[in-house]
Amino acid sequence: MLRISTGRGPRPVGGGFETFSWYFFRISGIALLFLVIPHLFIMHVSNNVNCTTYAFVAARYANPFWRLFDWLLLTLALTHGMNGLRIVIDDFVRSSSARIWLLSVAALVLLAFFMLGTITLITFHPAANVGLNCV
Amino acid sequence: MYKGQSGMWSWLFHRISGLGILLFLFIHIVDVSMLLFGPAVYNNSVLLFDWWVVRLLSLSLVVAVFYHAFNGIRIIAIDFWRKGARYQRVLFAIVLVVTIIVFVPVAYIIMQPVIPWLIQWPPRAIVGK
């Protein structure tokens, strides 16, 4: 039974990867508050989603700030999320061989999606005709 | 006790919302990569997100993001604020209330352009105008 009457919750001690992971969740989580919520607001509140077209992205990505913003969003959301998936796999998969197999697949998925997102952000170069402003 | 109390629900909602957001992130990285195939292909993926069914689905993403963000702040408060653990139950109530308060206007703004499609009869599942 976990009983906490006063004071802070338990914090990990002793170093190692799990301590790093614990701090990483919190630090990347705070950073993601300032990345995800503005992103959500820009795409769904201050713009109608049907106007987030190729032309919209081309205008946005003319400014390198938004490419950096989106790359930080990609990197932190993916690592924060995949670290969460790692914890879920550790919690629910009892067989160690299945766990190692799933964790390896998760690592490959992380790498593949990180590369796909990074390649898109770096290599995007707007076409001469950017098309409709809204669909 | 833990089972059946606020701590269990906040934990469970945090996990489910986190996994849901991660699933969306995979989809979103793929749909953004359609940029590399030019305006016609990319705008087709935008058209998909404009469909009222996908707008309804995106409401679940929005509520998941708000809950996960606000409960994340609660977790950090429990870990680093001296009185955080003492007030964790009150903080959970605040997280739920703030999530709903922020979600309702955003949900309205997202659905407002497709309200004519939602209220038409017979319903037509069409993409675009």
Number of strands of chain B: 0
Relative helix content of chain B:
over 70%
- Compute the number of structural domains of chain B: 1
List segments of chain B where confidence is low: pLDDT < 50 over at least 5 consecutive residues. none
What is the arithmetic mean of pLDDT of chain A?
A: 92
> Radius of gyration of chain A, Cα only, in angstroms?
20 Å
From the spread of the alpha carbons, the general shape of chain A counts as elongated
CATH topology heading of chain B: 3 helical TM bundles of succinate and fumarate reductases
Measure the end-to-end span of chain A: 55 Å
Query: Approximately how much helix is present in the residues of chain A?
Result: 55-70%
Order of helices and strands of chain B: HHHHH
Main sheet of chain B?
A: none
Provide the fold topology.
The complex is a heterodimer of chains A (135) and B (129).
Chain A: H1 16-44, H2 54-61, H3 64-92, H4 96-123
Helix pairs in contact in A: 1-3, 3-4
Chain B: H1 6-33, H2 39-50, H3 52-80, H4 88-111, H5 115-119
Description:
The complex is a heterodimer of chains A (135) and B (129). Chain A has 4 helices and no strands. Helices cover 70% and strands 0% of the residues of chain A. In chain A, helix 1 (16-44) packs across helix 3 (64-92) and helix 3 packs antiparallel against helix 4 (96-123). Chain A has helices spanning 16-44, 54-61, 64-92, 96-123. The termini of chain A are far apart. By secondary structure, chain B is mainly alpha-helical. Chain B has a single domain, classed as 3 helical TM bundles of succinate and fumarate reductases (Up-down Bundle). In chain B, helix 1 (6-33) crosses helix 3 and helix 3 (52-80) runs antiparallel to helix 4 (88-111). Chain B is elongated and about 55 Å long. Chains A and B meet through helix 1, helix 2, helix 3 and helix 4 of A and helix 1, helix 2, helix 3 and helix 4 of B.
